[in-house]
Input
Amino acid sequence: MASNGSAVPAPTSVQEVEQLVKRLYAPGNPRTIAQVDDQLKLLQHSPEGWQLADALLGSSDVNVRFFGALTFQVKLNNDGARLDAETAKTVGMRLVYWTVQRDRAGEGMLVRKKLCASLATYFLRSSVRWTKPLLHLAVSFQQGDAVPEERLSASHDAIDQTLPTLTDSQLATLLWLSGSLATEAAKTDSTTPENMQLHTLMEDMVASASKIIRHASKRPDTAQGGKLRAESLACFLNWVNYAQPMWHAQQESLNHLRNLVEDLAPMLTEDSPQSEAMDVFRDILESFTTFFKPQHMQLLANIINQFAAPKMLQLLQDKEPEVIPVAQLIIAYGIANIQQVVEEPENEYGSRNIVRLLLAIFEAPGYPGDDDEVSIHNIEFWNTYIEYVNEAMYSRTTDQPPPTWLEHDKAVCMQLSKLIQNKLVTPPPDIAQGWTDAEADAFKEFRVDASDLMLSIYVRLGNEMLQQFITLALTSLAAKDWQNLEATLFCINTLSDNVLEDATAEQLLIQIFSSSLFRDIADFNQPIPTQTRRTAIDTLGTYGQYIERHAEFLPDTLRFLFASLETFGLFMSAAKSIEALCSTCRNSLTGELDGFLAQYNRFAQGETSEPYTNEKVIGAIAAIVQAVTPESAKVSPLSALLDIVDGNITRAQQLIKRGQMEDAEAYGVSAIECLVRIGKGLQVPDDVPIDLYEDEPPKKNEQSFWRTQEGQAVQHRILGICQTVLLLLPDSGEVVDGVCNVLKAGFTETEPGPFVFPPEMTVSFLEQCTISTPHLESVLSMICTLLVQYSRRDQPRIDAEVARIYKHTVTYIQALGEPSQDPGIAQSCIDVFNRMSTRYINVLLDTTSTGDSVQPILDFALKALDGPDLMPKRSAADFWARMVRPPENATDETVITRAGHVISAYGPALSQALINQITGRAQRSELDQLCEPLKALTTNRAPTKAWLEAALFSESLPPIANGSVGDADKRRFVQQVVGLRGESRRTRDVVKNFYVACRGTVVSY
Output
């Protein structure tokens, strides 16, 4: 069929096909071209396709000839296995004939390669085995025509007699065919009986393939000879890739390929095809290391030592891109021989040279990502090196003597860490400004990869590595070498997590923090690069735990951070570090609150003040407020923070009056986000120590301060801010999200606090919302979190509030009517009912507290279960599984009776919905969720079997796709499911098998 839906005829003559192919390769109307393509595809599947394809190979147009060869391949893929023996042999002979003829005619590479691909397909798909494809084509080349297979010599060296008589183009075609055979055969399943015979032929064929490769590799060093030798390398690699998974036990077959190494390795030193040779040997070193025997590794070591090493060193100095394949070969060799490289450091032809060369890559001039791409590749070797060293070090037992190579390795790692630091130095501005985005990203990526490597080296060297970097940093600071200082600080920052876990590193870090570093870098009169200051800011953020234990360093560091906060290019990093440092060191900074508030107010008037920095800094100050004692002392600084938020609201109100709604929304959202940050900052840190020996309980007035009039006033002010912004920006989903986050800020707290609101306040916010409230899903998600919190046994019951939640959520599903009206809200509503079904099942089912509203909920959940929307369906499946199972530990007779009434009333409809889904309406990925209510039904004392059978034989059941599923299959399914009585895994298997049968698909589980 054509793309536009109309029928098109298949071409029936050579002339017609030629015209169609020419139209296909010519520019024109897309629809016309699509129709042409459809007609040609019809030809490739038509019975006449064989004859037309054969005729097309004699065309004068190269595209037509290519299409003829392609048609042969398509037909063989589709129909090759169904051909009778005589026709199959005829097709094979015609392909050989055309391959010979097109070569004699001087055909280009395009058509001859496609003919080779068709011959390889014939080898795989033909109903008659083609036992000697390489010999058959070689003899046919020699004779100038397709030679019948029965005339081929049975001698094991028959191909040796033909190879010297073949031209370069004929040898190239043999190599293409040989490589195609290996590539395509590798894709077949070797375990089937039919394919086992095919792979046996490959074992026989490798001898001929290796002879062709060897013969082609010895062609004279001419332009044509270089191309032929490159083709021999490609063919060799295809066979090695085939052999890797296939010939673990066939060493004799594998040795045919291994014996080629000495013939092909010299190409690594020749101008042509040196690049191809390096790629091939690198590929095998990386993917099939055991292919090479020890003598081969020694041969490669000699080539690297005598040829590749001096060439790479020279190319590194010249910054030539040609260094990459040479370096990659050496890297691959080093990784393949990593044990020898590490454990035999004095091996002249292996280890010593490899380590020297790969350190030299980092010593060479240039910047990674710009004129030094090799360093990026070099990271892989050193990761392997360090991984091997660390594993060897930490896997040995304590009574084992240290390895002899230990001191050498330590020296290597110390040198390596210094070289990496040097490679991390950023370029001067005149170079960096000329970088493209891709070059800048590559440099950043190198830094990330180098960071991972440095962490591994630190495992080996420990504090010696840290001391080396500290010395470098102090030396750079004294010399005012700011770029080198930045790279060293970056290294120190990278190690922070490991360093902070090591108590012995404390004294080393004093050298940095007691130096003039942060005083000098805070002097904005000095011409220090922004990047250096930014990395110094990061140092303060990453080493906050250290500064917390050394409060004497806080004044210099915070003075620098707040100065940076008012500086373009630094304020984002400074705000982040201020938040991290204040959060970590909150207990040491309570005396500085007034000063911080004053600095913040000054910063808020500056040009660098924007939402991100405001939120970070206000959260940082809130973290210090959390550490203030007693609780009543928090009111004053907290009120000052709320004044700042009020200022943003006032600004938003002014902008609304001017009609600047976009700017007003930005200020309003920022006000709410600042409030969220205050709430998070006031949360008690997770790592606060618990005094197990403290017998004295908290003082009553401290414990209940936030329930006093003064504490309640603060809470009401917070809620008032939320209400004001909601009224200002009623259509802003970001504001709704922010208010939800404010209310949730106290959910995790175990003691009263300014953001620990009574649950009725959260419920009141829900009751303000309607079905049209933006981001209503966020509100319902918050309610779910509230229900989970108050479902814990250590929390008081809040039945009255839950009843209000229930009633208001019902209004949402009534407004929706159908779950598909808004699947997101539908799912969120059902989730609310799910969270109620544990501790508050009495509210869910008790008509006295909720009114008679359970029916619309059950009807809605049933529609969601049998609907098309994935997420509401999953929530509904969870809901019904909870409803059907007997209430856990239920003692309220009213609840138990009501639950029984629900099951009796909705059991048939629930069974029908589940059967509708299982017989084909559901997606396969939904079956596990649908099994849950089904398992619950089978464990309940209800007539489940009758309900399920009625559903399967109901007229309302959607038509089952597979008509062969009969009444007996349906009854057997019901019998199996009911008999398993909720056994989880087996029930899922039965359901999936029945689903597959109904869909008429074959799926392996």
Q: What stands out?
A: The longest helix spans residues 893-921. Residues 131-264 form one domain. Confidence is low (pLDDT under 50) at residues 1-6, 689-702. The radius of gyration is 38 Å.
